[in-house]
TrEMBL record:
InterPro entries: NAD(P)-bd_dom_sf (IPR036291), Sc_DH/Rdtase_CS (IPR020904), SDR (IPR050259), SDR_fam (IPR002347). This is SDR family oxidoreductase. Pfam families: adh_short_C2. SUPFAM superfamilies: NAD(P)-binding Rossmann-fold domains. PANTHER family: 3-OXOACYL-(ACYL-CARRIER-PROTEIN) REDUCTASE, 3-OXOACYL-[ACYL-CARRIER-PROTEIN] REDUCTASE FABG. Belongs to the short-chain dehydrogenases/reductases (SDR) family. CDD domains: SDR_c (cd05233).
Amino acid sequence: MSQTALVTGATSGIGRAIALELGKAGHEVVVHGRDALRGAATVEAITRAGGRARFIAADLTDADDVRRLAAAAGQIDVLVNNGGLSAFAPTAEFPVDRFDALFAGNVRAPFLLVAAFAPGMAERGNGSIISIGSMVGAIGLPGGAAYGGTKAALSAMTRAWAAEFSAKNVRVNLVAPGPVYTDGADSDFIKYLGSTTAMDRGAEPREIAEVVAFLASPAAGYITGATIAVDGGRTAI
Ligand SMILES: NC(=O)c1ccc[n+]([C@@H]2O[C@H](COP(=O)([O-])OP(=O)(O)OC[C@H]3O[C@@H](n4cnc5c(N)ncnc54)[C@H](OP(=O)(O)O)[C@@H]3O)[C@@H](O)[C@H]2O)c1
């Protein structure tokens, strides 16, 4: 049975890699982001590899736009809450509008998307929801209070959603990456953070995407409510 996956923030970085993996696994992929050109490039990469995809633009910090995205996406079997904002700055200097945008994009948007899609998945008795957290949701980094707060919230929401929906065969999990080399990330910062991991390196987006594709697959059929650290061992040491 063909399944449709919505991947937020799939115009670049980790989300793009996830969209490509899910396309390869046979899902029809709804590619989300804001940049239509990069959206078209992700769609093209999926179709070139033999998959099916379409692009929908929406701003995750705008609740009405998130609801419009949900309506335009139609029936979704796999929801990947990947899109998000990241910002690091000393707490006393952190602008309040930036704080609000982080929580709107990283916490409220996934909440609204789960509200839109999980009841339908439960009714059909099939679904997988995977959110992208961060090791910063579990460890303290200077300047990371707001960002880490959003990722810890996503982790708590994942457990609550697992309690709410798993009995109807809707599995809800969180993947918590360590440092990943992406367009949106400062490569010197990723290199430094990579040097603090047990593996002494940062990750490539594909190394996160393959774990997400596994969680979306029937091979992960008894995994729900889990936070999977994909962080080179950073939270273990
Ligand atoms: N890179 C890392 O080291 C790392 C580590 C742990 C966790 N993460 C998490 O992994 C996820 C992806 O990160 P990444 O590094 O791959 O980021 P990225 O390369 O900067 O890509 C971010 C994606 O999110 C979209 N996005 C950002 N703000 C948005 C908004 N307001 N409305 C709609 N879409 C928005 C972007 O779309 P447009 O560009 O089209 O607007 C883009 O597709 C994030 O949740 C991040 O917190 C990243």
